[in-house]
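Our preliminary data section would be incomplete without showing what the modeling component actually yields. Below, a chain of 218 amino acids is followed by its predicted structure, encoded as C-alpha cells that our downstream tools consume directly.
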Amino acid sequence: MSSRLAVFDCDGTLVDSQANICRAMERAYAAGGIAAPPRAAIRGIVGLSLVEAVATLSPHGGADLHRDLAAGYKAAFVAMRAAGELEAEPLYDGLVAALDTLQADGWLLGVATGKSDRGLAFLLAHHGLSDRFVTLQTADRHPSKPHPSMLETAMAEAGTDARATVMVGDTSYDMHMARNAGVRAIGVTWGYHDEAVLRAAGADAIAHACGDIHGSCA
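Predicted structure:
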C-alpha cells in the first residue's frame, strides 16, 4: 500500500478542551450529589470514553453510578452549549501548519477520539477542518481507548495498513491503542499526560511542538 495515514487524537492533541471537560464533569458529579474529583484527575482521564472515564475517576462506584455520571456529563455539556457557556476550544499553536505539511507530503489524515460524533463534527466545523480528514472515529461507534477498534476502522476506511499508519496523541491511552493496533505511536507533550507517561506507554517518538509532528511521523 502506498498511502500513509496519520491519525490524531482530538482533546489535548488538536485542541485544548480541558476547561469545558472539567466543568461538565464537575456538574455531572454535583447533579449526582457527589464531590467532584480534582481537576488534575479529570484531565488525566481525557481521551477515554465516558463510562470508562468516570469508572476510572470513581472506581468504588458501581456500574449504575458510572452510567448515571456519564449521562450527567452529556446533559451538562448539552446544557452548556445551549446556554452559550462553552468556552472556545482553541487549536494548539502550529497545528494547522503541521496538518498542511503532512498533507503536502502525501499523508492522509484521520481522527480517533473519545468525543461523540456530534461533538467532533461541531469542533471541526468551527475550526474549518471538516474537509481535512478522510476518516473520523469516535466513542459513539467503538469501545473506549486503548481498544484498537478505532484505528483498525480508520485504516480500513483510508485503505492503509499498520505499517503505513501512525497514531498521534497526548495520552497513554493513545499510545496503548497504537500498540494494540500495531501502528507507530507519536506522543505529544502539550496535552494532558507528560512525556514520562507517554514513553512508559510505548511512544516511538515524542513531539514537543506541532512543528515536530512531521519529522516524528517519518
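The mean pLDDT is 96. Strands lie at 4-8, 107-112, 135-137, 165-169, 184-188, 205-207. Preliminary results of this kind motivate Aim 1 of the renewal.
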